[in-house]
Amino acid sequence: MRTPAPKMRWLCLATVVYLTCTCTNAFTNNSSDAEERRRLQARGRGGGNTGIRAARRNDKRALAKQERLKKLLRAIETDSPIPDFIVPDSGSKPHTPSGPAIFAAAMSLEMRRLDALMFCATARKAKFDGDIVVAVLPGQDPGFMAALREAKATVYTVKPLCVGERHDTVCSFRENEPKFSINMVRFYLYQWWARKYQEDALIMLSDFRDVFFQANPFTYRTWDWAPPIAQLVVFQEAYPNKVIYRCPFNGGWISGCYGKEGLQRVGANTVSCSGVSIGSRDAIVIYAHLISQQLDPRVRYGRNTTETNKPCVSLGMDQGFHNWLVYSGQLDKYMDLKIFQQGEGPVNTVGAFFPGERALLKFNLKTWNVLRGEAPNLAFHNWNGDVSPVIHQADRFLDKDLKGGYLATLKVAQGFK
């Protein structure tokens, strides 16, 4: 056998010594639980944010959040009973309290069969077998309703009191309540529906018309977001095209509802989209409740305020409320949040890639490598190359990247009629 060169002999010796010391230290550190506790306590006394003291502080914060959440849940259940008229349509699939569930409001008489197929049928095609709970208005298109039944959706025909037309429609559920954007009605439904589920059920709140599924979001990388990692998961739009204060819409919703000081406080954050969120049953009830509470200026500004809702009421006001709650720390009082950057989690919100005049970066979806393949087998992907389970706002690209429509371009739409 050849004798190692002098440098190699020293390298081998150093490696043996290193491995020996490492193994010895590992054995010593793990040989006694008492010794491990003393080591952590010593580190904690050093003033750093590690060790047993830090762990205890974290435990206290978690317990405090849980206590606040449970207290608010009890108050909601006492003060806001589920109305008698909130019952599913006859013949609808009953709720499965163990979950998971997807909640959506399809309260537009312009909905057609393809809209229901792209939402419900793609979810079923993606092997989601939980509840799909959908609110509709009386007089919906028969083809649309038939597609909901085929997907075994749990359908609620609701009759909010509305005035106005299209984007100017404002509604409430009771005569003596102020009327707001129809987008806000769904948050009352969400908290009522969620209370029909068990504590450990996972629930997704979703827009309807501009959402479709490529895979099951409830099984995608759950180790990165599902409880106990987080109780509520929210999803950002694309940076740098969507930052709150740079976006006239999102910035306007924040400043209209919370004033210039509110915009200064949260405006530097990337827009989080209110269209799709995922959470535990308790977190969803609290989130939907807090969103609806923002309709009261006394909640937003303080009990003695003279502010009114006049500058706040608009079709996108729920997005302003959502971003305020996420970035001001209001939700963090009750739950742990997971904020996914665009294209990193189970929901991929792609609308900010639209190359409008305000976009800082102007490339098509294929150039970004977000949209891959060739029609009719195109699919949207996350940045890590995975197929994105849920796609939101792809309808912005029906005249460009998806020219010809979903049926002519997307893999998930093949077979639909």
List the helices and strands and how they pair.
Elements: H1 6-30, H2 33-45, H3 51-79, E1 101-105, H4 113-125, E2 131-136, H5 142-150, E3 154-157, E4 161-163, E5 170-172, E6 180-181, H6 182-194, E7 202-206, E8 211-213, E9 232-236, H7 248-266, E10 272-280, H8 281-293, H9 297-301, H10 317-327, E11 337-340, E12 347-349, E13 371-372, E14 379-380, E15 390-392, H11 406-409
Model description:
This protein is α/β, with parallel strands linked by helices. It has a single domain, classed as Alpha-Beta Complex (Spore Coat Polysaccharide Biosynthesis Protein SpsA, Chain A). It is built from eleven helices and 15 strands. The strands form four sheets. A seven-stranded mixed beta sheet has the order 3-2-1-7-10-9-11. It has a three-stranded antiparallel beta sheet with strand order 4-5-6. Helix 3 crosses helix 8 (281-293) and helix 7 packs parallel to helix 10 (317-327). The chain is globular and about 55 Å long. Mean pLDDT is 87; it is low at 6-32 and 40-47.
Strand order in the largest sheet: 3-2-1-7-10-9-11
Residue share in β-strands: 5-15%
Number of helices: 11
CATH topology: Spore Coat Polysaccharide Biosynthesis Protein SpsA, Chain A
Main structural class? alpha/beta
By DSSP, the count of extended strands is: 15
Mean pLDDT: 87
Q: Please mark out the parts with pLDDT under 50 across 5 or more consecutive residues, or reply none.
A: 6-32, 40-47
Write down the overall geometry. Answer: globular
Order of helices and strands: HHHEHEHEEEEHEEEHEHHHEEEEEH
Amino- and carboxy-terminal Cα gap: 74 Å
Main sheet attributes: strand count, strand direction, barrel closure: 7 strands, mixed
How many separate structural domains?
A: 1
* CATH architecture identity: Alpha-Beta Complex
CATH class: Alpha Beta
Indicate the percent of residues in helices: 25-40%
Radius of gyration: 26 Å
